[in-house]
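User: We ran a pulldown and think these components assemble together. Before we commit to crystallization trials, I'd like a predicted model of the whole complex to look at. Sequences follow.
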Amino acid sequence: MYDEPTDFSKAPPPSDAYRIVEVPDPFRELQARRGVAGTFVGTDPGDSPWIPFGPNAAIRHLAFDVRNNIFSNILWIKKPGVIGTHYHRGQIVMLCLEGSARYLEYDWVATPGGFIQEVPGEAHTLVTDHPEGTKLFGWMQGAIDFYDDEAKFAFTADVWWFMNHYETYCRENGIEINEQLYI
Ligand SMILES: [Fe+2]
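Assistant: Here's a predicted model for the assembly, 183 residues in total across the polymer chains.
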């Protein structure tokens, strides 16, 4: 019979060496030749600017992955209001960073630290009631179909839509494209 671990004192070995440690890697050469580097997007507006998303919101793009139709960003809803009804065709994870957000369809309210997971086939309407709105970090996969309040289809946002949103704004405002966003 399998014994479940009961020792919860395990943690990374303590170190104050502040030294880069080379770990054994049987595929080091292959990784150097075929691997890709991770990315970093800092908080400077030059790294990624806030870009208007309708009259009451802005998006700060963080990542685009065209192979997997994945896009990541921070959505900032600036004051109490609604971000349209939408239907998901992929999985979404979000973390509330500031303010608060909820969906008309559910009974919970996300406050800073609150974690949201959404699945394909879900349709819902995002709102914030907080006087200072909300900021939501999102890691999103698959198309999002937006509808108006009469359930009439408006547009589909996928990785290409978000990439175009970023590149068009940069082009029109003389901002250099940040290659770190393209994973
Ligand atoms: Fe959603």
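Residues 86, 88, 92, 118, 124 surround fe (ii) ion (CB under 6 Å). That may be worth checking against your pulldown data before setting up trials.

User: Thanks, that helps.
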